[in-house]
């Protein structure tokens, strides 16, 4: 497999074409952003940790029947994935009130939700990723009604698996964001699942074990991400 030209540079990773038109070479970067890119910092070691964490999680999801883009981890910072047409939606699943949900609805952070809540945001930097409902998604032709319900079903199934996975390593999955893509008419989980895209609270201490450490200026991100990786890798290596 040969790495070819740069296809896209995002906030936390670079995507390259490969000698196989169906595969993409992903490189995770040592970069953290907040406020839709308005705040940006180089954080040495972050790319490596995120790549290792998301690779571990995608392997775990594959074993549990979740269709996704992951092929293999190539190095500490790189992985190979299937090329998909990304659906421009951020699918957010919430188990406990936090972040924008708490702010918008006045629900105190930490309040457990009766049922998981699925939200959609339109991925558009110019518009600051606005909250959209199913009618908006349909109107904007981002997904068909049956795809919207599949997104929800998939998101809730992934939520169940991840709640259990993180609970096994003493972490509470507060909320997280997923992205999906289409490949040969099938919907695949794509992008990443990392502490950049999940809120994880330590079960015992309630400490933030995710990007809120950076967003809220609570300290150094690396030891926190390292701890998440250590716990996950100990668990998955045992099997
Ligand atoms: O900010 P908000 O409370 O809406 O975030 C909900 C979840 O989605 C958090 O886990 C956050 O890390 C994730 N998220 C993300 N990328 C965004 C917005 C939110 O990964 N652009």
From TrEMBL:
Keyword field contains Nucleotide-binding: yes
Highest taxon listed in the record's lineage: Bacteria
Gene behind the chain: purC
Keywords from the named record: ATP-binding, Ligase, Nucleotide-binding, Purine biosynthesis
Catalyses which reaction(s): 5-amino-1-(5-phospho-D-ribosyl)imidazole-4-carboxylate + L-aspartate + ATP = (2S)-2-[5-amino-1-(5-phospho-beta-D-ribosyl)imidazole-4-carboxamido]succinate + ADP + phosphate + 2 H(+)
Pathway connected to this protein: Purine metabolism; IMP biosynthesis via de novo pathway; 5-amino-1-(5-phospho-D-ribosyl)imidazole-4-carboxamide from 5-amino-1-(5-phospho-D-ribosyl)imidazole-4-carboxylate: step 1/2
Record-listed E.C. numbers: 6.3.2.6
Protein name: Phosphoribosylaminoimidazole-succinocarboxamide synthase
Sequence ranges assigned to domain SAICAR synthetase/ADE2 N-terminal in this UniProt record: 6-231
């Amino acid at each position: 497999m040969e790495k070819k030209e740069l296809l896209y540079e995002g906030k936390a990773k670079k995507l390259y074409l490969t000698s196989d038109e169906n595969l993409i070479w992903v490189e995770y970067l040592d970069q953290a952003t907040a406020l839709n890119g308005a705040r940006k910092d180089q954080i040495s070691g972050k790319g490596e940790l995120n790549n290792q964490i998301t690779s571990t999680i995608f392997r775990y999801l594959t074993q549990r029947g979740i269709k996704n883009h992951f092929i293999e981890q190539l190095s500490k910072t790189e992985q190979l994935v299937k090329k998909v047409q990304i659906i421009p939606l951020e699918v957010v699943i919430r188990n406990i009130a936090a972040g924008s949900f708490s702010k918008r609805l006045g629900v105190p952070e930490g309040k457990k939700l009766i049922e998981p809540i699925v939200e959609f945001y339109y991925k558009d930097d110019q518009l600051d990723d606005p909250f959209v409902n199913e009618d908006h998604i349909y109107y904007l032709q981002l997904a068909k009604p049956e795809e919207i319900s599949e997104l929800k079903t998939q998101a809730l199934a992934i939520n169940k698996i991840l709640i259990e996975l993180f609970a096994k390593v003493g972490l509470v999955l507060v909320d997280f964001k997923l992205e999906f893509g289409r490949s040969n008419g099938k919907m695949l989980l794509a992008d990443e699942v990392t502490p950049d895209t999940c809120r994880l609270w330590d079960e015992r201490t309630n400490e933030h074990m995710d990007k809120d450490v950076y967003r809220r200026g609570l300290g150094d991100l690396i030891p926190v991400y390292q701890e998440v990786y250590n716990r996950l890798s100990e668990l998955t290596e045992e099997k």
